[in-house]
Fold:
Amino acid sequence: MSTAMNRRAVLKAGAAFAGTAALAPTTLRAERAAINYWHTFTGQLEFGALTNTVMPMFAKAHPEVSLEQEPIPNSEFMAKMTAAVVSDSKPDTSMLASERFADLHAMGALTDITDRVESWERRGDFDDSRFASVTDSEGRIYGVPAFAFVDWMYYRKDWFEEAGIAPPTTMEEMRAAAIALTDPAKGRYGFGMRGAAGGQHYIGNILESFGSPVQRADGSVGLDRDKAIEAMDWYAGLYTRDKVAPESAPNDGFRQIMEAFKTGQTAMLWHHTGSLRSISEHLELGEEFATLPMPAGPAARVARLGYASHAITNERNADTAWEWLKFWGEPDVAVAFLDATGYFPASTAAANDERIVSNPIYAPAVETLGFGVPHPSFPGYAGWSENVALAAFQQILIGSATAEQAVDEMIAELDRAIN
Structure:
């Protein structure tokens, strides 16, 4: 990120309107007209969409509000919010990832907004399921869904056509295609594996697709050892046995897997709709690359609908903060943000907008909305997945542990996390 992007950007009253919709201005009491917002939009594309699209649209609708935003690296977010809670210096509003809800709720970082949501004029635009990941066991709501990270797969359409290989629909078809398309002599690999930061997301998916979800449908938590071993052996085997991932895979995070795909080093990549625009800047959509729903595993087809919500984290300016939260629910705002980033709308009304459903680019994401599931969410999950599951998987990749040893470590630490 550039130095300018690292600095806090402040949008004052009267900022220029750069959005696509003329939303009617509203008025608030002057003493409630300044708020701040913490988020994890640290990439250039998404940060630009926030500051050049959404915030100017908000300024047009709310010229009386001064909104200050602060980008926080995803890996530092929980530590910073924890420190803010302890020091009583929480921001007014914050991004709220579904997988972090349980931990943030447990530490008292979130404000109950149930009454505001239920009386909101756009409440009917959202399916009840959209609020499930930000609702506690007593039915209290703590966030407004803003957009969704819809899992899907990118693939090099030109490479597949050249090799005469059909796009994969199952994991075994994907593995076979990855083996066929790997040619180290040409610097080509079949699959861009995210073995470092952020890779825990796919470990959870693989476990569930092989029949061992971390959190079951009834809410209980635990792993089926045999199925988990099968899952980790298959997934790590793409690197250790099949050699279809770059040698750097154990250390590859978001930036590395994206650069490898954009520059023609990998044939397939798992990510979400939020990276569509970034990849499109380097490869020709529909010609060089295309998208598919996530492939089905032996037990289930698993794709996450990772709803990112916004929460009021400090009650001092709750009325003004609420205006910012609900603004993201406006269909024109959601579609404008999608156009700028590829982040899919959380609003059912926006997702059904003709500008989306009539565009074949988004067809795999629309299909995924029918079978996708949210991330597991229970106290301790974020820490376990990032610090235990990912580390154990990396040990398999570098040959320091077997799949059995890694899964036993996951099971033992998961038990400690929940008990």
Residues 1-32 have pLDDT under 50 and may be disordered. Residues 44-61 form the longest helix (18 residues).
